[in-house]
Amino acid sequence: MGAIASTSLLTVGAVEAQAAAIKATVTADNFYGIFYGNEDGSALNFVGRNETGDGGSSGGYNWSQAETWDFQVNNNDYLYLVTWDDGRVAESWIGEFEVGGKTILSGADDWEYIVGGDNPYLTDKSTNLLPGNEELSSLIDGALWQDTISIGKNGIKPWRTIAGVDEDADWLRTASHTEGSYTIFRTRVPAEDVADVPEPASMVGLLFVGAIATTMKRKRQA
């Protein structure tokens, strides 16, 4: 019985997962989609995107007000942001990410980028479809990532101040509106911000151990 209990305890430890809760507040001129996943992009998870059209859900433009997303990432995961513009005048994105009680901002020192495929908005404005996981994965795997470029802090023209985003966050330059491409940005979630979280299988193991202990106690009383 002792051996069984020891095995069960080992099982409990083996199924512990590591996860971090993230609150992301993001906007882009003009479009974006948020993902998280592993380093080579083979396991991407879609979180959400902003409006597909030119108008904002509130405010005059689709970048006027940031959206907020709550989700969890695993240990060693990366945050990925796919951005593209409407082919006119200016392009960039800005955001704030709360992870494990700490804050990651859109900043030139923390993010890297690559230029991706065809701009979805310019390809078909009626659908403006987010690039699919397979396409993104093929670009991420083995990519030569570049240092990001800051255009300026939250509050600069033409976007001015985006509510809900820290004033020290940078507007990061995306592919030029003349390039006709989307951009993929990423940053790694700091390991110290990821906590051990027991999965449901762990609870089953703990219940099993408790059942064994109860049985052994009854046998002694008998």
Question: Layout of SSEs?
Answer:
Blueprint: H1 2-14, E1 16-29, E2 31-37, E3 44-49, E4 67-74, E5 78-84, E6 92-99, E7 102-105, E8 112-118, H2 120-123, H3 133-140, E9 146-147, E10 150-153, E11 170-173, E12 181-188, E13 195-198, H4 200-221
Antiparallel strand pairs: 1-4, 1-6, 1-13, 2-3, 2-5, 5-12, 6-7, 6-11, 8-9, 8-12, 10-11
Helix pairs in contact: 1-4
Write up this protein.
The protein has 222 residues and is of the alpha+beta class. It has one domain. The chain is 21% helix and 37% strand. The strands form two sheets. Strands 1, 4, 6, 7, 10, 11 and 13 form a seven-stranded antiparallel β-sheet that branches. Strand 2 and strand 3 form a beta hairpin. Helix 1 runs antiparallel to helix 4. The longest helix has 22 residues. It is globular, with a radius of gyration of 23 Å. The two termini are 17 Å apart. The N terminus and C terminus are likely disordered.
The total count of strands amounts to 13
Number of domains: 1
Whole-number radius of gyration? 23 Å
Mean pLDDT: 85
Strand content: 35-45%
- Main sheet record: 7 strands, antiparallel
Using the alpha-carbon principal axes, give the shape: globular
User: Which runs of at least 5 residues are low in confidence (pLDDT < 50)?
Assistant: 3-15, 201-221
Percent helix among the residues? 10-25%
Structural class: alpha+beta
- How far do the termini sit from each other? 17 Å
> How many helices does DSSP assign?
4
The topology string of helices and strands comes to HEEEEEEEEHHEEEEEH
